[in-house]
Design goal:
The chain starts with 9 loop residues before the first helix and ends with a strand. Strand 22 (981-984) and strand 23 (990-993) form a beta hairpin. The chain is α+β, with helices and mostly antiparallel strands. The chain has a five-stranded parallel sheet with strand order 2-3-4-1-5, with helices on both faces. A five-stranded antiparallel sheet has the order 17-20-21-24-25, with helices on one face. It has a five-stranded mixed sheet with strand order 26-31-32-33-34. It contains 40 helices and 46 strands. The longest helix is centred in the N-terminal third of the chain and has 48 residues, at 186-233. The chain is flat, with a radius of gyration of 40 Å.
């Protein structure tokens, strides 16, 4: 291919324009003579006179003159100018612009001449130094634009104009300094030069504005074009669509296929000025690809515009019908760029329309759009030749030819000539005839001639003495088949025992018939080898045939070193075979395939032709092969998968992986030592999924799962196949969407299996293992994806650790997980209370059994349980169901009912639990909004002396929003058939997988986030929130208020430890104090910081009272969507205030101090209540900010309890955060989380407790639920907390992570065109499964 000519640099072009613009009389003098001489010398010397050489010359001149004139005391200030000038020139050279050295000479010499003239006048020289500094600024700017936009003609012309102006100024300044009349008055000289420069600088400034505008347009255009290219590419690997490099690398035997240029049909096609289409068909192995390559190179050598595409059966991308059109579009795109043309308007309009419809990619079903795109680009090209090879290797040649028929018949402005090759298939022949093409006849004599040329050219390479008769015998036996000829010569070369010409003649006389005969001959050669070599060949064939994706040399060598014998429990480096031995044994049947520059170990090892692995998979009996020594080389699908799967399992279970691995990236980078690790971790499941499993195989898998190496496998899998640890959400029958966004798994989302799906057949252990791992992945998949360092936080409960003891090597000893074990037959469990009794952590749980409610108190330390017949003085609350829906469909406050001392919020028993004639209920019911339901936001319990008091904040939620509260904001986008495959699940329904975006789209289009608040059309006089307070056995007190439209809120009340009062604040600067005995409510004014009174999308007002009762703590959190983060995050303003509560009885509640913290956290649109979780003890206030599903942000504020009235301690209200992050289970947001913090009297660690309620399965599936659980974190007493750092802590960790794309989740190990399968199970029902297939 011809290379593009070098672009002349702007200064070089400016020099010519400046010189041509001079009058004859101006082409004299020292300035003109020196700069023209410098240009000529620089252009002649080229690289021999470097840029730095010119710069050193000017520096030496300045340094040499420094002592001779007082003006040169300013010379030091000119060195930066010289450096800038040198950098500017280097920028031209770096981007390959011509005449840069000559231009450099002009610039440096021009500066020297002008300064030389100014050196006799101090004031004038001073002014020239100032002007040079201004020029320096312009040069830096222009150098950057030259580098950034080397092909932008508009910017280039403006830069040239700038340099012409600068040269002109230097020239005029030189002329002014030489005028004798001006020299008399130095002041006049300065003013003259200043006026001259002012005129030029204003022109430079105006052009600078135009350049900036053009540069911005170029940026916008480049961004737009990038989006268009991404849309056209779809989900395909772009490198597979660009075959121009392949065209250069495809081997061509010199002299072959030259007959095509003498063919009359080809001449007619090439020489015609009209549009023509030609095609050439021939049997397999006849050299069609070689012919197409020869034609493409021949046309390119003649300066023609050529586009080449080749369908390939063994490549998913390049075997699709539409891939040819995508490839042609990208090549036409390149030709357009080379011509300087803009992107066709029609293309831009198509893309913009697709973006508006949220169609991210051009799918394989968008055939009309693809054809239209090709037509739009063809209209820009006067003449182009398009060669499409291998029509028969397309998965749907009929579809492809229908597309080409439309393009061939397209009447555009240019001339397009099409050249097709393929087998003479019936379907192809039918469609190609419909197109109406010229056909180049296939003649055996032409192919025979090419085979002869090929064999003659390889005489020196072939280590055999082939006479002319030998060559003719091979040609005759080949029947015009290149492939046969190459293989037979290879067979002769492989046999080292056949050296004399007589033996060669004897062998040629017994040439087998057809390719099958050749392959049997190859196997017979191997069968004559020793037992070790035969075994090696058999294993090579099994691994290569059954490998899910092509193995590299290092991967195959590592796999061959695996010994299934139990005595060999680790990698055996001395058993790794040499590649030379494999080549010697397998001979011409294998070959290395790798791009240039790829090391031998990283190259792929493949069979020499697709027909050989097909041959090995056939039934040898059907082929008439009776010899056992030949049958052993054939590969049965199930037995082959079993053997390769067992080898993968054995490799993963090596001793070197039986311990925790902290440097996973380093291990994976060791291609030779751990080469097979990625493959084994990626595909052992697939291999063992489709075999006849047995008890013995189950025992092998169970042993692996119970070992530490299993967790190494998970760590590797998270690196190479990240999609294993994301959710798969069903969107319609047979289709799933991959969850790209971070967030809690929804109830209907599925997660991938980590073991073969037949494990559950082996009871009782199999189902237990499967269920444990399924629950583990669901809870910790976000952490497993984040980093290997966080894996130690992914813990199992005691039962899980007993079942899978290998996890102990990875477990963090500072994190413990306790799951409440319930009696057999229990259902609908709920965590009602969690508290410390001295150092023992206890939980109280309610559950149903035998139609009645029962209560347990369970120790989280020992697991001991105590059944409670009746609870005294407790305020435990049970929410059943989570959404509080009135059975009549009306919108009412749900009831609180007493059941063995516990208060239930149960909609079915609403009217019976509370008196229907309650004045408070009637009052609230009179202002009820329509079309909504009440939902609990937060629950607050009291301490002594009113321990039985409870406060609930309920909020009104629109009925239509209930399905989306807390769910990810999603963006449905069109997905092509290349990213969707329908398969059957275990119930017979279709299932599939789509890589449609979830939560955050790959496009830049705005998403519509779901908001659980009220819309603008909400009736404003309706109550949207209420606080229910009940103490002892009295009727509940209900206080309602109206929140702003679209606003979420969380209001919690505080109960005084010594007095029977409750306190809450529903609005800024207002404090409500309720007398629990009389029911009287008093309002008090409180002072708040100005920033805490503004409106926000989410408002949290959380109150706590100190244990002594003297201080009131108010937490105000205001959250708004941040424009900088779109829907990734919201800005949280956190205000923590302390008030003196001792004077509350007489109306005085004075603020003592306040602390303000800013944080960018989880997007409000993705939150479910409770929105924040807090805890207060005697010394600190603890606040947990979302995201609760992964890595929350914990803060604590030191309390100013020792504060004297009007004063404060230095450390009061100080904000701190954890030194090391902690991680929450994924289901935390749905489990009504609450936290506790316990300061230890002795020991090195405090304890943070996360208590989680049960997680109920969807009601339509079952009544099953995941039981309540407690996670306990040890926090270092001395170094566990650090001061809040605004720079480090402002942004949440989730914002610093790389945005997830389908490409990232797919992983880089699995070939981009490789289809793979996963088995997925619903989050809350591990017994169901679906089989998904994706690429």
């Amino acid at each position: 291919m011809a290379s593009s000519p070098l672009v002349e640099c702007p200064l070089s072009q400016a020099f010519h324009e400046w010189e041509n613009g001079l009058k004859t009389k101006e082409k004299t003098g020292e300035f003109y003579e020196n700069v023209t001489k410098a240009y000529k010398e620089g252009s002649t010397l080229g690289a021999g006179k470097s840029i730095e050489g010119w710069a050193d010359g000017l520096r030496q001149y300045l340094d040499g003159r420094r002592e001779k004139s007082k003006t040169f005391l300013l010379c030091k200030t000119l060195h930066p100018f010289v450096n800038t000038l040198a950098m500017w020139m280097e920028s031209f050279v770096n981007i390959g612009q011509a005449a840069s050295f000559g231009a450099a000479g002009v610039a440096f010499v021009a500066v020297r001449v002008v300064l030389k003239q100014a050196e006799n006048y101090y004031e004038t020289f001073d002014k020239m130094v100032e002007i040079m500094q201004d020029i320096q600024v312009a040069l830096v700017r222009n150098a950057n634009y030259t580098l950034w936009y080397p092909k932008d003609k508009n910017i280039h012309s403006l830069l040239v104009r700038d340099y012409v102006e600068i040269l002109t100024f230097w020239h005029r300044a030189d002329q002014t300094l030489r005028k004798k009349t001006v020299r008399i008055l130095a002041g006049g000289l300065v003013r003259s030069i200043a006026a001259e420069w002012k005129e030029f600088s204003e022109a430079l400034h105006r052009r600078s504005g135009r350049i900036v505008s053009l540069a911005q347009n170029a940026i916008d255009e480049a961004k737009f074009e990038k989006g268009v290219r991404k849309w056209i590419r779809g989900t395909e690997d772009h490198s597979k669509l660009d075959l121009q490099n392949d065209l250069q690398e495809l081997q061509e035997c010199h002299g072959t296929c030259s007959w095509i240029f003498d063919d009359l049909t080809f001449k007619q096609w090439y020489e015609s000025i009209e549009k023509e289409t030609v095609w050439y068909s021939a049997p397999p192995g006849s050299g069609k690809t070689t012919l197409s390559v020869v034609v493409a190179r021949h046309l390119a050598a003649k300066g023609e515009k050529v586009i080449y595409f080749r369908y390939r059966y063994d490549d998913i991308t390049t075997s699709k019908p539409l891939s040819a059109l995508r490839s042609i579009i990208f090549r036409l795109w390149t030709i357009r760029e080379e011509s300087g043309a803009k992107i066709p308007r029609g293309v831009a309009e198509m893309y913009q329309n697709e973006v508006k419809r949220h169609h991210e990619y051009l799918g394989d079903e968008d055939k009309d759009a693809a054809v239209k795109l090709v037509e739009l680009f063809l209209n820009q090209i006067p003449k182009v030749h398009i060669i499409v090879d291998g029509l028969d290797e397309c998965v749907d040649p009929g579809c492809a030819l229908k597309l080409f028929q439309r393009l061939v018949n397209f009447e555009g402005y240019g001339s397009t000539k099409w050249f097709f090759t393929g087998r003479r298939d019936t379907e192809i022949l039918k469609e190609i005839t419909a197109i109406g093409v010229l056909e180049i006849p296939h003649r055996i004599e032409n192919v025979t001639k090419d085979i002869r040329t090929y064999l003659e050219s390889r005489r020196d390479e072939i280590q055999l003495k082939l006479c002319s008769n030998c060559i003719e015998r091979v040609i005759y036996a080949s029947g015009g088949n290149f492939l046969y000829s190459k293989l037979m010569i290879g067979i002769l070369c492989d046999d080292e025992n056949r050296g004399c010409s007589g033996e060669i003649h004897d062998e040629l006389a017994r040439l087998p018939e057809g390719m099958g005969g050749c392959y049997i001959r190859c196997l017979e050669r191997i069968a004559r080898m020793n037992r070790s070599d035969r075994q090696l060949a058999r294993r090579v064939f099994i691994f290569m045939v059954r490998a899910i994706q092509t193995l590299t040399v290092n991967q195959l060598l590592n796999a061959l070193a695996i010994m299934i014998d139990p005595h060999y429990d680790d990698h055996q480096p001395d058993r790794v075979p040499k590649l030379e031995r494999i080549k010697s044994v397998c001979g011409s049947l294998i070959q290395l395939d790798g791009s240039r520059g790829t090391s031998e170990g990283d190259q792929h090892i493949t069979f020499f032709h697709k027909s050989f692995p097909d041959f090995l998979e056939e039934n040898p009996v059907a082929l008439g092969i009776s010899r056992d020594d030949l049958r052993c080389f054939f590969v049965d699908m199930k037995l082959g998968n079993l053997e390769l799967g067992r080898h993968c399992l054995k490799y993963l279970n090596f001793q070197r992986y039986q311990q925790r691995v902290d440097n996973m990236d380093q291990i994976l980078d060791k291609d030779e030592e751990h080469a097979f690790l990625k493959y084994a971790a990626s595909f052992w499941l697939e291999h063992l999924q489709c075999v006849d499993h047995s008890q013995s195989l189950f025992e092998d898998v169970k042993s692996f799962v119970r070992s530490p190496s299993f967790w190494v496998y998970l760590a590797v899998r998270a690196k190479v196949r990240p999609h294993t640890f994301v959710g798969y959400k069903p969107i319609q029958t047979g289709e799933f969407r991959v969850g790209k966004g971070q967030g809690e798994l929804s109830a209907d989302e599925h997660i991938s299996d980590l073991l073969p799906d037949w494990i559950d057949h082996y009871k009782p252990e199999g189902p237990k293992i499967l269920q444990t791992l399924h629950a583990y992945t669901c809870e910790w998949h976000e952490v497993l994806l984040s980093s290997a360092e966080a894996w130690s936080h992914c813990i199992l409960d005691h039962a899980g650790r007993e079942l899978l003891p290998g996890v102990k090597a990875w477990a963090n000893k500072k994190v413990r997980w306790f799951v409440v074990q319930l009696p057999e037959g229990s259902s609908t469990p709920a965590l009602t209370d969690v508290f410390f009794c001295k150092s023992e952590l206890r939980t109280r749980v309610n559950y149903r059994a035998g139609g009645e409610d029962h209560w347990l108190e369970v120790s989280a330390n020992s697991g001991k349980t105590r059944r409670l017949e009746k609870l005294h003085g407790t305020s435990s609350i049970l929410v059943r169901p989570e959404r509080l829906v009135h059975p009549s469909g009306e919108f009412r406050i749900p009831g609180l009912g007493k059941n063995q001392g516990a208060w239930l919020i149960d909609l079915k028993e609403l009217l019976g639990r509370w008196r229907s004639d309650s004045d408070e209920l009637k009052e609230l019911d009179g202002t009820k909004p329509s079309g909504g339901e009440w939902r609990m936001v937060i629950e607050q319990r009291s301490t002594q002396p009113c321990r039985s008091a409870v406060g609930l904040h309920l909020t009104c939620v629109k009925t239509e929003d209930l399905q989306t509260i807390g769910a990810e904001s999603t963006h449905e986008s069109k997905s092509g058939s290349n990213s969707l495959d329908r398969v059957a699940d275990n119930s017979g329904a279709d299932s599939g997988i789509s890589d449609t975006a979830s939560s955050i789209s790959d496009t830049d289009s705005d998403l519509s986030a779901v908001d659980s608040g009220h819309g603008e059309d909400e009736v404003q006089d309706c109550d949207s929130d209420c606080l229910i307070i009940r103490c002892n056995r009295r009727l509940p007190l209900i206080f309602s208020w109206t929140g702003g439209p679209g606003v979420k809120s969380q209001v919690s009340c505080a109960f005084h430890p010594n007095r029977k009062i409750a306190v809450w604040s529903e609005s800024p600067e207002q404090l409500q104090i309720l007398d629990l005995d009389s029911g009287e409510v008093k309002s008090r004014q409180i002072e708040e910081q100005d920033g805490s009174k503004k409106s926000a999308v989410l408002t949290i007002r959380d109150l706590h009272i100190s244990p002594c009762g003297d201080y009131l703590y108010l937490l105000v959190v205001l959250a708004d969507e941040s424009k900088d983060y779109k829907y990734l995050g919201s800005k949280y303003d956190i205000f923590f205030s302390t008030f003196d509560f001792r004077g509350s009885t007489n109306g005085e509640v004075l603020r003592l101090g306040v602390h303000h913290v800013e944080h960018i956290g989880e997007a409000v649109s993705r939150l479910r209540p409770p929105y924040v979780v807090s805890h207060c003890d005697a010394s600190h206030f603890y606040l947990c900010l979302p995201p609760f599903h992964h890595r929350p942000k914990l803060l604590r504020f030191a309390l100013g309890n020792k504060t004297i009235y009007g004063e404060s301690d230095a450390d009061s209200y100080r904000a701190e955060t954890l030194t090391h992050p902690i991680f929450f289970p994924n289901s935390t947001p749905s489990r009504r989380p609450r936290i506790l913090y316990r300061h230890t009297v002795s020991g090195e660690h405090d304890e943070l407790v996360l208590a989680l309620d049960s997680l109920k399965a969807p009601s339509e599936e079952s009544d099953a639920a995941s039981p309540p659980m407690v996670v306990r974190y040890k926090i270092d007493r001395e170094n566990g907390w650090r001061a809040w750092n605004p720079d480090e802590d402002k942004e949440g960790a989730h914002l610093k992570q790389e945005e997830r794309t389908w490409e990232m989740l797919r992983g880089s190990f699995i070939a981009s065109d490789q289809r793979y399968k996963v088995v997925v199970r619903p989050r809350l029902n591990y017994t169901r499964k679906a089989y998904l297939s994706c690429y």
